[in-house]
Design a protein that fits this description.
With 399 residues, the chain is an alpha/beta fold. It is built from 18 helices and 14 strands. The strands form two sheets. Strands 1-9-14-13-10-12-11 form a seven-stranded mixed beta sheet, with helices on both faces. The protein has a seven-stranded parallel beta sheet with strand order 4-5-3-6-7-2-8, sandwiched between helices. Bound molecules: adenosine monophosphate (AMP).
Length: 399
Amino acid sequence: MLRQRFNPQKKFRRKTVQKSLATHELMQAIRSVERVVDSKKHGEEKAVEDQSFNRQSSFDIFDLTPQVLENISYKGYESPTPIQIQTIPAVIIGKDVIGIANTGTGKTAAFLIPLVDKVFRNKFERVLIVAPTRELAVQIHEELRSFSKGLGIHSALLIGGMSINRQIGELKLNPNFVIGTPGRIKDLIQQRSLFLSVFKNVVLDEADRMVDIGFIQDIKYFISLLPPVRQSLFFSATISGKVNEILQGFVRNPVTASVKQQEMVENIEQEIITLKPGESKIDRLHDLLAQDEFKKVLVFGRTKWGIQKLTNELVRRGFRAAAIHGNKNQNQRQKALNMFKNDEIQVLLATDVASRGLDIEDVTHVINYDMPASLEDYIHRIGRTGRANKKGVALTFVS
Ligand code: AMP
């Protein structure tokens, strides 16, 4: 196979002025992951020890009602993940929480489990969960339904691309949980169908993404409408300047729970792909996808237009492929995602924003067809593979 194993030292010596900042950042990411793996090899387990799944303890260590524990075990979760160990007890005793964690760490269950428990104990509790993308909101909603099965807990999903009238109808039933994306939440507030003053429990999920997408003003507006006495949970992979702006006005005396990014990427073999003179990128991609081990492949590109063009070409060449990006409506995006999840297609092509937070099992390869715009995007992208302690491969085209 025409791939190169990445050797950081060698690459850095060869670094030339042509290298873009993104290439440099990519190399840093790969090096930082390799450092973690190296330190493990040399027996320096300490730094990463705390990050691994705690196999000794089960969910019984938390003060949860038996019905909630039963739903957790029915879902097949045996032991809490590090972010859950840190978050669940804090939420149970009523603290605000800042969770610094990515998708893949079990952060959704970290906030859902104690909130479901809280609502089960008191059906007057109302919870608002705000997520940056429709796909993420759908996933949170699905997970909520499994944790609250048979507990008489009602929920509404407020996302664009779906009937607003139906959502207005659901809100009239005063659901315990309301999960939504900023755009639709704002519409429903303006139509006077949704009143944030009743939500004494609020979760902002993937706050850094919300800021990236440009929802910062909407989020500040929502916070201004929330009751001043409330329990606030804030999740973000990183806390940058703008994210901090939201954070300050949101939480009070918070507990901070954090999981290092390396944890998500240490199961991932990272390689770069350089093209030979005259070789076309699409032909190389074609060669890779034609190999047996490329069973479930996520391909990332930078623009909606580029991703669609590449998808059309792969389909023309006989690959089972579909795309998700901002020019697709909600039904098309969900359909493509479901086909990929159910192994009806081999390749899912996506832009960064469309793919944010996606939880798909058994992705064998992530291919960065275009370089990610930032180190953070790179980590987010490759974190789609190598999940739940499975091995994954991330390949990045470097031109
Ligand atoms: P998240 O970080 O919330 O996107 O979760 C990533 C994946 O891990 C999801 O498929 C969860 O269902 C799964 N998960 C979360 N917590 C646990 C756990 N304690 N044990 C096993 N799987 C889990």
